Input
Amino acid sequence: MIGRKSPAQIEKMARAGEIVAGCLEMLKEMCRPDVATAELDRAAEKFIREHGGIPTFKGYRGYPASICASPNEMVVHGIPGEYRLAGGDIVSLDVGVTLKGWVGDSAITVEVGDAGKLAERLMEVTEASLWRAIAKCRPGNHLGDVSHAVQEYVEANGFSVVRTLVGHGIGRKMHEEPQIPNYGTSGAGPELREGMVFAIEPMVNAGSHKVVVGDDHWAVSTADSCLSAHFEHTVAVTAAGPRVLTARAGEKNKSLEAVSLVW
Ligand code: MF3
Ligand code: CO
Output
């Protein structure tokens, strides 16, 4: 059963989402050579708490940090630590915030200095696949339309989607039904209805879709050590169309060009 949220509940999720978005904007600015990922984590936790939120990830199934920071061939769930960013890196930053019992979850991949053409195209394609999926979040569409939108665009651009990790419903808990794979068939799966809220998160590899889990039992990396990118937004299905609850400054206009959205 896919739960549905009232308009008032979606407003509360949007307040959590604003903190997530602000935190990611701050982290993006911090991504310079020699910054340790642990410093990003500390700054994120401070930002979240100063805005009245709780870092959702911290303590989730024993996860030890407030954000995930996953550089280069690392796909997701990198535990921040001593690793220092270097010019030419890309790094996925994933943030979850609980505010008054409601959760927002979003991720971006950013470039440190100049990461080169392949990395930039990988990031662009991954982010565009997310927006294509977001555009499918309308009542009457099916969950498979969302999944298919990611897969079709990614594979048409010569990249691969990770199979073993998925997006998810979100609300009072970070992970609710349904699971949202980044591959699928148009028209398949449950029908989307007003009030459903999804965290859609394409994880896209430059090489093979295969991944491996690290010794810390969290970090997921590409099996072939090729680059990977990850973008995520929390999106509500509303009568008027998709509403992105974790939109950052500057995204509102950009996305309006691509898809018809509600803010
Ligand atoms: N966005 C990720 C997810 O939906 C973040 C979870 S990290 C964890 O799974 F540490 F909290 F698990
Ligand atoms: Co998520």
